[in-house]
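Most newcomers find our protein records easier to grasp once they have seen one. A learned vocabulary of local backbone shapes supplies the integers on the structure line. Here is such a record, shown just as it appears in the course material:
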Amino acid sequence: WRTHYNEVRPHSSLQYQTPADFRRASERSSTTGAVNL
């Protein structure tokens, strides 16, 4: 059930994205403008 909940089931709090999709989108957006100090 955890796999289904975290990878398949859309969540309204994530604008109906799956948590896995939300994480991937977040990782992409955070790495595009990242600056290493």
Q: What stands out?
A: The chain has a mean pLDDT of 83. Residues 14 and 22 are 7 Å apart (CA to CA). Residues 2-28 form one domain. Helices lie at 2-8, 19-32.
